[in-house]
Amino acid sequence: MKPALSTIIADIVAQMGEATDRGKVADYIPELAKVDPARFAIAIATADGDLLTGGDADTGFSIQSVSKVFALTLALGKVGDQLWERVGREPSGNAFNSIVQLEREQGIPRNPFINAGAIVVSDVNLGGHQPRVAIGEMLRFVRYLSGDDTVAINEDVAASETATGYRNMALANYMRAFSNVRHPVDLVLGSYVHQCAIEMSCRQLALAGRYLMLDGRHPDGGRVVSPSRARRINALMLTCGHYDASGDFAFRVGIPGKSGVGGGILAIVPGRASIAVWSPGLNENGNSCLGTQALELLARRTGWSVFSPP
Ligand code: GLN
């Protein structure tokens, strides 16, 4: 008999508690360096409507690049497939903040999940408005998805990234030179850093991801995106969600996932589960060390994979 999911979660929490190599907390955004590396959390929202949690599942953390999934969903809602004229859909094979491919590819970022791509997505989501309008829309969207109005932005994290985000300024200015960023760079980045500074717990994040396990439907019955769009977002998470470690993540875990430098990962098992894990220590690719290990363990114990029959 398969062990219950709650037993598997308890085992994972116990095993992660004993880990000696937890990776290194991101410090290029100074505010993120203050987070305790010993934290670990997991939450699983199932297609049956259950929510199971382990560890610090109610502690908020900076979702950072996990927000790129929600931003992409909003941008596709605004401009549809026209988005793909400005952003590619190929894994980059480079670091999340890399600039090297932009010159060769005329200011078109490889995919919406590397920083350059997410900055173009933020430009689309601005849509001629002030950043506070776009940020408000993003926050409302994430609150709706998670069914939780307490989700908020950590202004200290946003200010910390604004003060030190030289690489993103370079990326945005470079793409503006190709007219692929169309609003003033400071407005686009203002919107981008606030989206990254959204704080959520694993419980809230797992709930927010449910539409991607339910073929685009909110559990309340509303349609967030069409089934084909949900599948495409999942496909991009699988191929590009972990930057130059996306292949390794697909190999080890075998389900779509999107990581952030706050140490969170949102992972989707279509038709079965929306999973959030968090541990702030990162590996050399900027992905959560224990978060990845926990998902690998979970996939092994449950048999969940997009590469095998359900
Ligand atoms: N806000 C971060 C940045 O732009 C997000 C990066 C990440 O989570 N990988 O550098």
Automatic annotation (TrEMBL):
Binding site for substrate: S65, N115, E161, N168, Y192, Y243, V261
InterPro entries in the cross-refs: Beta-lactam/transpept-like, Glutaminase
Enzyme class: hydrolase
Reaction it catalyzes: L-glutamine + H2O = L-glutamate + NH4(+)
Keyword field: Acetylation, Hydrolase
GO BP, sorted A to Z: glutamate biosynthetic process; L-glutamine catabolic process
Superkingdom of origin organism: Bacteria
Molecular-function GO terms, alphabetical: glutaminase activity
Keyword hit for Hydrolase: yes
EC number assigned by the record: 3.5.1.2
NCBIfam families per UniProt: Gln_ase, PRK00971.1-2
Family: Belongs to the glutaminase family.
HAMAP family: Glutaminase
Subunit structure: Homotetramer.
Protein name per the record: Glutaminase
Native species: Sphingobium cupriresistens LL01
Gene that encodes the chain: glsA
